[in-house]
Each structure stands twice: as C-alpha cells, then as structure tokens.
C-alpha cells in the first residue's frame, strides 16, 4: 500500500553489510526497508517514544555526580526532561527544548550549552491530545489522577502538566563536593512554597523493575510560567490542570566514562536510599528568590 509519508532512499553500502542485510531478511522475515528503518531510528534516535537517560540514579546515590555530558549533547536527544548538574548543583528542568537550572537559593537561570550534567532523563515529546485533570488536594491525589491515564505498569510515561496551582512545594539540592552521597546532600536542601502560581510540571513515571537505573514511580520537577522559580516537586494542589502524556516504549541509557563513575562500586541496590532522598524534607523552608 502506498504511504505518502515514506520517501525513497538510495545509498552505497559495503558488500559485507549487504550480505548481513540479506541474512537478517532471510532469518527474520522482515523486509529490507523495515531493517534499515529500524537501524536508522536506533542510531539517530529519531523515533518517538524513547527515553534517553545519562548515567543511573544509583550512581547519584553513591555520590557519583561529576559532569558527564554537556547540555548541548542532551538537547540532541530530547526537548522535555529533568535531571541535575555537576555536583548536584540544583535541579534541571527541560521544557520546549530549553534547559533551566533551579538553584538552591530558589532562583532560576537558563543555562548555556556548555553546562554539564551527571544525570538526566529526556524525551522528544510527542504527546497524545491534552487531558483535563480534576481537582486534587495533594501530590498523592495527583498521582491517582495520572494513574487513571496509564494503560500499563510495564512501560514508561512522560508528562507535561500546565495550569494554575493553588499550592506547590519544591526543593533544590545545593552544590556539594564530589563523593557526597545523595541522602546527605538532600538533608541540606532548602524548600520553597508557592501559592496561586501558574507553572509547569515536567516528569516521568517509571516501572518498579528499573529501580536500580532510575527513579521508580513518579518524578516531577516544577517551573513557574515566568521561568523565575521552581524545583523538585514535593507537594502540590490545584483545581484544574491540563496534562499532556506520552507512553514511552524504549529506554536508552548512556553510561558515563568519567573517572568517578568507572571507579565507583555500583553493585548494591540503593533504591531504598534513593526513595528516602527523593521524599526527604529539607532543613528549612524559604520564600523563593525572585528577581
């Protein structure tokens, strides 16, 4: 059947690759077109519904937060996501292809492409039509609203949630020395409260079976509409928000080759410590610094 979205491609390839294509076609039953398309999507990361992750959450737990990749590199793999910066210096929020850093004083800046990250998760966001979320009184109720939109517990989901929030509580981890465990860094984190503020939640839901790689369950970062405040989400409530959701069927993990990562002992399960650090309350609450 003719498909107007497909275009012809002609190229020269070595005879060895041609023989490999023929063998793959013979053994799998796939067409040459399908094999080449799948290979190009994988190599170029051009397909939708793929999460791209740098490093592992377990490495952060162990204190491995040396900058591994540049923001420029991250932007090649997604336009929506979250993460952190070298030495856990604040919270990363990527929305509409722009990367922001929420610092521990509550301020926000858009970072340049040379900034580096030890851990980030991004996707090229191509969501389903927007869905209106009903009123909820806390983050647990928000999770229940989002649970109703999921059709499986075994794939990943990406979210962008926009609107007027009655209340938001966030935190931002301060910069620490390399080797500081995540739980120790989170114990010093300041918290910020916002009231009646428009903004955006960016985040992901991940299955429990990947708990040694990334944060299982929901993980959100918040950014105000004016891009002047935000942080890692601890709690929120709202009357009505608009959610855009994409189911993600692929996960690509790029492991760092930094000295700290290569030398770290990542053999034990740090998921309990990760969960504690993600939910841990800070040692004080601040009004956010807003220019």
Task: Write the element-wise H/E pattern from the N-terminal end onward.
Answer: HHEHEHEEEEEEEHEHEEEEEHHE
CATH top level assignment of the largest domain: Alpha Beta
Strand percentage, roughly?
Answer: 25-35%
Major sheet characteristics: 7 strands, mixed
- Based on DSSP secondary structure assignment, what is the total number of beta strands? 16
Strand order of the main beta sheet, please?
A: 6-5-4-3-8-1-15
By CATH, the topology of the largest domain is 60s Ribosomal Protein L30, Chain: A
Query: Helix share of residues?
Result: 10-25%
Question: Could you report the average pLDDT, rounded to the nearest whole number?
Answer: 90
* Beginning-to-end CA distance, first to last residue: 58 Å
How does this model look, in words?
- The chain has 291 residues and is of the alpha+beta class.
- It has two domains: 15-44, no CATH class; 50-286, Hypothetical protein, similar to alpha- acetolactate decarboxylase, domain 2 (60s Ribosomal Protein L30, Chain: A).
- Helix content is 22%, strand content 34%.
- The chain contains eight helices and 16 strands.
- The protein has helices at residues 15-28, 32-44, 57-61, 71-75, 139-147, 182-186, 259-263, 271-279, and strands spanning 50-54, 69-70, 80-84, 91-95, 98-102, 108-110, 116-117, 120-123, 131-133, 156-171, 190-206, 217-224, 230-237, 241-248, 250-254, 284-286.
- The strands form three sheets. A seven-stranded mixed β-sheet has the order 6-5-4-3-8-1-15.
- A hairpin with a 2-residue loop joins β4 (91-95) and β5 (98-102).
- The radius of gyration is 21 Å and the shape is globular.
């Amino acid at each position: 059947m003719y498909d107007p979205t497909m275009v012809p491609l002609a190229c020269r390839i070595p005879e060895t690759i041609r023989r490999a294509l023929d063998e793959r076609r013979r053994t799998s039953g796939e067409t040459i077109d399908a094999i080449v398309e799948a290979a190009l999507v994988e190599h170029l990361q051009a397909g939708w519904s793929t999460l791209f992750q740098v490093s592992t959450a377990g490495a952060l737990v162990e204190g491995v937060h040396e900058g591994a990749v540049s923001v420029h590199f991250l932007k090649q793999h997604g336009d929506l996501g979250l993460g952190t910066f070298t030495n856990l210096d604040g919270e990363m929020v990527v929305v509409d292809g722009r990367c922001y850093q929420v610092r521990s004083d509550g301020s926000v800046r858009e970072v340049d492409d040379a900034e580096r990250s030890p851990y980030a998760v991004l996707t090229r966001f191509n969501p389903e039509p927007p869905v209106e979320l009903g009123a909820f009184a806390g983050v647990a109720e928000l999770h229940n609203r989002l649970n109703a939109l999921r059709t499986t517990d075994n794939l990943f989901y990406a979210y962008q949630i926009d609107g007027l929030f009655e209340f938001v509580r966030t935190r931002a981890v301060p910069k620490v020395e390399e080797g500081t465990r995540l739980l120790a860094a989170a114990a010093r984190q300041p918290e910020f409260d916002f009231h009646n503020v428009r903004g955006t939640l960016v985040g992901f839901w991940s299955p429990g079976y990947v708990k040694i790689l990334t944060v299982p369950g929901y993980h959100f970062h918040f950014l105000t509409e004016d891009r002047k405040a935000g942080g890692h989400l601890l709690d929120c409530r709202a009357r009505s928000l608009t959610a855009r959701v994409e189911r993600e069927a692929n996960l690509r993990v790029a492991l760092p080759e930094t000295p700290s990562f290569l030398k770290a002992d990542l053999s034990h399960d740090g998921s309990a410590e990760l969960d504690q650090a993600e939910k841990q309350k800070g040692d004080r609450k601040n009004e956010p610094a807003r220019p």
